[in-house]
Design goal:
400 residues; mainly alpha; 68% helix; transferase; two-stranded antiparallel ribbon; 14 helices; 2 strands; globular
Amino acid sequence: MDARAGTIPIAVQGQRHYGLDWLRIAAFGLLIFYHITLVFVPGNWVIKSATTYEWLIVPATLLNPWRLALLFAVSGYASAKLLAKTGSVGAFAWSRAKRLLIPLAFGMVILVPVEMWVRVLQNGYDHGYTYFWLHDSWHWGRFFDTEFPSWEHLWFVEYLAAYTFALALVLAWLPQRADRVIAATAEWLSIRNRLLWAPAAALVTMKLGLLFVVPEKQGLFTDWSGHALYVPPFLFGFVLARTPALWAPMERLWRPALLASALAGAILIAIELTWQGDAWPPHAIQALDRAARYAMAWTMTLALFRLADRMWNRDHPLRATLSEAVFPFYLIHHGAIILTAWYLLPLGLHPLAEFVALVAATIAACLTFYIVGRDIAPLRPLIGLGPRRSKPAAVTPAAA
């Protein structure tokens, strides 16, 4: 086999794909900085600085369409590898339940109320956090112009758990048919340039079919547009891990994918800069915007997977720690940003000082949350970590 054909032999052997570990680390890191940047980007977000910068619209626009689709694709790949490692669908589902549902429950009880408290404070609520958590964080419905309950950023964990358990159900119920569908899909996508255009066309078609029919509203049973964007990349990652021959067409198509992403990004920037704030473009422009977003989500995922495969597929002493840390970082970062901004912004600091302080405080909160949770065994499952692995006993030369 050509040595340039990516990591097909490695994937076949079932070894860990370090490149996708690095891609996951980078994607979560970008997500954290993206949320910090939203404090300073014009438009609606949870909390805003008094000073915003229009030039930040461009990087935010270029990052927004693909950041989460990429994470779902990496999660699909990791799910297939975990399924192979656990050996049964039941063990796989149980493992995912512990690693996703426990931190989701912990986050909803402990982490999300901090964000909801800041939301209602901005609308006139005048009680401290302890009172809010004990009395008002359990509302159902509108409260101080804020919808309760809310998943906030933990919707990602909710969706990922739902997709994972739905996939496990299909694999348990129809294992042979699922294997045939996976093999046939991979074979079909491997022909010519289908891997580039077919998934992008499917995503765009689903989105445009829903655009003016179904509201774009977050929620497991309401966000059909979101599911149309996130489920296919998740399944692609799973199929890729099971049929590593798909790395070969990815090697051929990454340049056209990157070019298509650049074109879609240019369209999105033009639309964002033309219709800002509360201005709504005509329906045709809205359709073009959504088509460009969904096409870019796929083409950037394709290009970045190839980048991870060709350039990042090597280990490093920090990889294991960073790979373990990203999920705890994700759990805490959103609330840390919002709470820090609530206390920081009234100080009237220079915008650059605001940004630096917000970054420093967020990173400090993430590190503290991870290190404390990592080192205290009962806290590990709450922050999405498995049991600490014991170090293997040293083997003496005589025993060897």
